Amino acid sequence: MGALITLVPFSAGLAQDSGPTAILLAALVVVASGLLSGLWGDRFLDALSRALDSTPV
């Protein structure tokens, strides 16, 4: 799920700068998503899925 979140700006062409800072930030989002889903489980993943469904990308 975290990888999907980080790939959305890249696939939409919005992330022109893919330098080390952007890669580090993407890795941080993936790790944070994994930790939060470990803590809250399905409730976090459901909320994240609803948030992604409502984005107009």
Describe the structure.
The chain has helices at residues 2-11, 20-40, 42-53. It has one domain (17-57). It is 75% helix and 0% strand. The chain has 57 residues and is an all-alpha fold. The two termini are 16 Å apart.
Element layout with pairings:
Blueprint: H1 2-11, H2 20-40, H3 42-53
Helix pairs in contact: 1-2, 2-3
Helix residue percentage: over 70%
Hey, roughly how much beta strand do the residues contain? under 5%
- Give average pLDDT, whole number: 77
Oligomer: single chain
The low-confidence runs, each spanning 5 or more residues with pLDDT under 50, are: none
Count of domains: 1
**SS content category:** mainly alpha
Supply Rg: 12 Å
Largest sheet: none
Order of helices and strands: HHH
Number of strands: 0
Distance between the termini: 16 Å
Q: Specify the number of helices.
A: 3
Can you tell me the overall shape?
flat
